[in-house]
Amino acid sequence: MLIQNLSLFLADRVSRRRIYSKLLELNKFYGIKSSERKEIIHKKISFTLKNAYENVPYYYDLAEKYNIKEIFLNFKIDNLKDIPSINKNILKENNKYFLSSDISKNIYYCYTNGSTGGRVSVAYDQDAMDWSSAVMIFCRGLYGHNLSNKEVHLATDTRSKNERDKLKQFAKELVNNRSNIFIKDFNDKSIFDYLLQLSTKKTNLLHGMPSQINGLIKSVNKGFHIPLVETSGEVLRTKQRENIKNFFSTKVIDRYGLAESGIIAYQMPEQFNLSVIDFHTFVEVDDNGEILVTNLNNKIMPLIRYRTGDFCESEEIIDGFYQIKIKDGREHIVANYKGNKLNTSSIEDIIFTFSEVRDLQFQLNQDKEIFDILIDIEKEANLQEIKDKINLFTNSDLGKLVRSVNSLDFKLSGNQSKKLRVVLLDK
Fold this sequence. Notes:
This protein is an alpha/beta fold and 427 residues long. It contains 13 helices and 21 strands.
């Protein structure tokens, strides 16, 4: 820890960032009583609302339109729900109006995936970026991981061809002791090469989506030890967790976040569900189970009561932490098949009752008509049973669209070429 703190302090001085001080603040915050933490969170929400009203055109107009100026300027926790929520479409259509008039020179843009609803940009200043880095370091530090430990990320290839950008990316990876394995390069031969690299380079942490990590290890019988495996980007299923845990002889840590707000919740030591990092993001769950977030550390583009499109299966308070269990079914939409409306989430639930299913992907055309359902399955003998069950549930012949494939054959979608559960394709 001492080495990490010194490294962070020196790196901050050289790069003119403030990650170290924020990490100290996080450690202090989570070392005090939960009642005291609530008071601090209340103050952070109050500041966020006041800043939004005074500096962000969208929220000023919203407050005036609904006569809720008082909520923004004199916040009380019970009144937060009286502020109309926003969603991805609202953010997309009014994007420039969410940007604060009080901005610094250095603005960074993060883009949501564009597979099912179009790309949306979210702006961050250096302070917000530093908070995001501090939260990441803090969460991983709970498991003993620090910046001196080697990280390997299964990543989508977003490398710039600009030489200056390449140099900056190289420096970033060097400072963070990090390297990448790009998913687009996966094939039967490269997988063995990548696993060899992981086993020989003293990797301390491997990060990727559950389906990506399972795709890396599924063709190999004998595993090896990596101290920590961290998953994100998809719901981590029980079978996936067990596969990864057994192959790497490790603890599998899950996290939940969005491009729009960074890390929202993290699996704490000795806990199974995800604990909300409430110093960074305030979370609500509505009556339908949908998760709404308010980011607390992004002054130039605050998102208040943003509907994530993700759903919570359960929620509870444990050891002073607000814990959530994400419901299976991110990136689900209502699709068409022969004139019938079908929720891909319901069909997915049916398919995953079969433990042999490793992963799946729905492929839809631009009119949201299903034309392919791809399944990566261990035992193809069960394929017909899956088809029959889908036909019975949907009262149709939808099962005929189900095909057994290698998950490496799944289509990549969006600007970041992510492998998604539901993709819209030009077909």
